[in-house]
Amino acid sequence: MEREALTFPYRKRMLYVNLGTGVLWLLWGFGQVWFSEKVNWIDYGWFVISGAYLLTFLYMWHFKYLTLAEGILKINGPFGKSVTLSKITHIRKFAGDFILHHPGGKFKINGEILDPQGREQLEEALRGLDAEWT
Questions:
Q1: Distance between CA 40 and CA 36 in Å, rounded?
Q2: Domain that holds residue 39
C-alpha cells in the first residue's frame, strides 16, 4: 500500500500578494487602454505583467512549495531540487530556514515562504530522520 505524498504549501500572504499585484496591474492596463486617447503598443505591456503575476499565483497555488513522497523531498518549481531523505546526514535550522546536508552538498528550504503549519509538519517529519541537528 502506497502512502500519500505530503505537500507543504506556500505562505498564504505570499500567494495573495501575487494575486493582488496581478489584479492591480490588470486594472491599470484596462485603465490605460480604455481611457487613453491614443493607445500605444507599450500600453498592452501591463497585461503581460499582470499575466505573469496571475500565472505565478496559479502555479504556486496548484503546485505546493514542497512535496515529500516515497522518501524524497522535492522543491516544486521550474528548476526544483530534490533530496533523498536517507542520504541526509546533518540538519541545521537557521533563521527559520532548514539546511539539509547530504553527501552531494546542501539542500536549503526557505522557511519564510513556507506556511507556518507546514513548517511544523516538516520539522516533525525531519525530526524522525536519523540525522544530527544543530
A1: 9
A2: 6-62
